């Protein structure tokens, strides 16, 4: 299937329509709630699994140099705060058969179907659970059968009240090759916090840059349903190189980047100061040489002037003889 030109979509509620059937695929126990325009991912029984996939491939690269694009995806969901409740975001190559999302597995993970059935396919996926016992995430990058699964925890009171919703925003910054996951409680003024992040170079994973994105959920031992209320995905084209800036990174990563930036700025300032001092010293040296040269020339001119003796001009004496001639006397 050819990649969508815009490679973006937005569902503010999932009303039943021809475009919904064309663009959205439901697998497992997931189904569309006709009365609320939400997608019910899991049934109200334990061990239920449901998945939703955006059918159209998304193109992540542009140009002949295959520069990867930045993107952000946002979804609103609700699920109980019980042990075993997990929700996952999945990115797989567009060549993968979508029926894989309908495969069952014997694990309680939202990523178990990838670990068992996506052999030799490179994927990027992570799942998280939010409960009163703490927040944790599992990250899967590469081929599922050989990838190292990273476990981490993140802070923040994200426990949802009965019927409450939580928003999740996922951002990928192509310049820094980092994926950031942020949350916001319904009605909260503080946006997308707390969060966790991890490094991933998407350009090295997929040759053609076309991927399929989806959401997967499992309720483990819980007997309550999970819901997706809205979902959007947007490609953010990279700005020109001269507009690039260091992206905001969370927690320790931000501190590392800030410290590196400060070091670079310090080195830049030191180099600038050295250049200014060098220019100043050169200017002073040139000024001193100019003064010395002027004094030297002045001295030479003074010596020459003192050596010139004026010549004495001869004075001739002129005698004037006055002859008085008396008229009439000859």
Automatic annotation (TrEMBL):
<dbReference type="InterPro" id="IPR013320">
    <property type="entry name" value="ConA-like_dom_sf"/>
</dbReference>
<keyword id="KW-0812">Transmembrane</keyword>
<dbReference type="InterPro" id="IPR001220">
    <property type="entry name" value="Legume_lectin_dom"/>
</dbReference>
<dbReference type="InterPro" id="IPR050258">
    <property type="entry name" value="Leguminous_Lectin"/>
</dbReference>
<protein>
    <recommendedName>
        <fullName>Legume lectin domain-containing protein</fullName>
    </recommendedName>
</protein>
<keyword id="KW-0472">Membrane</keyword>
<keyword id="KW-1133">Transmembrane helix</keyword>
<dbReference type="GO" id="GO:0030246">
    <property type="term" value="F:carbohydrate binding"/>
</dbReference>
<dbReference type="Pfam" id="PF00139">
    <property type="entry name" value="Lectin_legB"/>
</dbReference>
<keyword id="KW-0430">Lectin</keyword>
<comment type="similarity">
    <text>Belongs to the leguminous lectin family.</text>
</comment>
<feature type="transmembrane region" description="Helical">
    <location>
        <begin position="277"/>
        <end position="298"/>
    </location>
</feature>
<feature type="domain" description="Legume lectin">
    <location>
        <begin position="7"/>
        <end position="238"/>
    </location>
</feature>
């Amino acid at each position: 299937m050819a990649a969508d030109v815009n490679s973006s979509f937005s569902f503010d509620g999932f009303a039943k329509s021809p475009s919904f059937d064309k663009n959205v695929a439901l697998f497992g126990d997931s189904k569309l709630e006709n009365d609320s325009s939400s997608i019910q991912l899991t049934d109200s029984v334990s061990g239920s699994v449901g998945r939703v996939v955006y059918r159209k491939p998304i193109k992540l690269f542009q140009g002949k140099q295959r520069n990867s694009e930045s993107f952000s995806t946002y979804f609103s969901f609700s699920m109980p705060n019980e042990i075993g409740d997990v929700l996952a975001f999945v990115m797989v190559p567009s060549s993968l058969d979508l029926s894989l999302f309908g495969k069952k597995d014997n694990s309680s993970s939202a990523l178990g179907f990838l670990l068992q059935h996506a052999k030799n396919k490179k994927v990027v996926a992570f799942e998280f659970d939010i409960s009163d016992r703490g927040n944790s995430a599992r990250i899967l990058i590469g081929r599922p059968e050989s990838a190292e699964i990273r476990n981490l925890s993140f802070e923040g009171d994200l426990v949802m009240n009965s019927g409450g919703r939580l928003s999740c925003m996922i951002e990928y910054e192509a310049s820094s090759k980092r994926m950031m996951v942020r949350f916001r409680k319904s009605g909260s003024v503080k946006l997308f916090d707390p969060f966790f992040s991890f490094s991933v170079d998407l350009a090295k994973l997929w040759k053609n840059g076309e991927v399929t994105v989806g959401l997967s959920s499992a309720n483990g031992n819980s007997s309550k349903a999970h819901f997706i209320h809205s979902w959007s995905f947007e490609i953010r084209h990279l700005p020109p190189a001269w507009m690039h800036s260091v992206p905001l990174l969370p927690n320790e990563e931000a501190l590392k980047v800030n410290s590196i930036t400060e070091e670079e700025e310090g080195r830049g300032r030191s180099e600038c100061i050295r250049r200014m001092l060098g220019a100043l010293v050169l200017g002073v040296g040139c000024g001193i040489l100019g003064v010395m040269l002027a004094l030297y020339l002045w001295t030479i001119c003074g010596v020459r002037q003192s050596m010139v003796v004026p010549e004495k001009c001869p004075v001739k004496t002129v005698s004037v003889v006055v002859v008085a001639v008396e008229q009439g006397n000859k």
